[in-house]
Structures are given as C-alpha cells and as structure tokens.
C-alpha cells in the first residue's frame, strides 16, 4: 500500500468554500479503483490542509493522478501556492471498530 500526502495553504478564512468544494469531489474520488481511503484535514489557525490518500498499489495511485490533479485544480483559486505532495510506503494501517 502507498499513501500520497498532499499539503496546501489556503487564503485566510476559506474553510467554508474549501468544504463546499471538497463535498463536490467526494463522489469522484470515492469510485477510484484501488483507492482504499482518503482523509482531508483543515487547520483554522493556519488556513492549511492535508489530504492523505491511501492506494492499494503504485498502478492504482498512478491511475488516480488525473482525478487528483483535477480535484486540486478546483481548490486552486483558494490556494496561496501550489500543493506539495509526497508518496510514502504504508508500514501500518489500522481502522477502528
């Protein structure tokens, strides 16, 4: 399993607009083949966010790259700069009951 971790900085006080855009993205990413989970966070104090997407394998992550780029494109007008991405190998993935 692999994780794509994307961090981004947003214009001040853009939480509501960000959440509205993320809500439109959910149906798109929910159906990505090989996507195990996606979490999006937002920090009101720093107007920043992190999206962590976990994929079954490299092929699944590569296939999702177009949807990922398009999704972040929707957030573009709210961002103060380009998002930063890193890819990590999953060494532990635990879900609750």
By DSSP, the count of extended strands is 4
Instruction: Walk across the major sheet and give the strand order.
Output: 2-3-1-4
Strand and helix order: EHEEHE
Q: What about the largest sheet?
A: 4 strands, antiparallel
TL;DR of this structure?
By secondary structure, the chain is α+β, with helices and mostly antiparallel strands.
What does this structure look like?
The mean pLDDT is 91. This protein has 97 residues and is of the alpha+beta class. α1 (15-30) packs antiparallel against α2. Strands 2-3-1-4 form a four-stranded antiparallel sheet. The longest helix is centred in the last third of the chain and has 18 residues, at 58-75. The protein is 35% helix and 32% strand. It has two helices and four strands.
Helices, strands, pairings?
Blueprint: E1 2-9, H1 15-30, E2 35-43, E3 48-55, H2 58-75, E4 84-89
Antiparallel strand pairs: 1-3, 1-4, 2-3
Keywords:
97 residues, 4-stranded antiparallel β-sheet, 35% helix, 32% strand
């Amino acid at each position: 399993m692999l994780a794509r971790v994307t961090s981004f900085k947003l214009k001040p006080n853009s939480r509501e607009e960000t959440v509205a855009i993320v809500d439109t993205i959910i149906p798109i990413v929910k159906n990505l083949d090989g996507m195990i989970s996606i979490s999006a966070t937002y920090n009101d104090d720093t107007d920043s966010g992190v999206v962590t997407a976990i994929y079954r394998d490299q092929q699944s992550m590569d296939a999702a790259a177009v949807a990922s780029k398009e999704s972040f494109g929707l957030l573009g007008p709210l961002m103060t700069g380009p998002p930063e991405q890193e890819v990590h190998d999953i060494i532990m993935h635990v879900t609750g009951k």
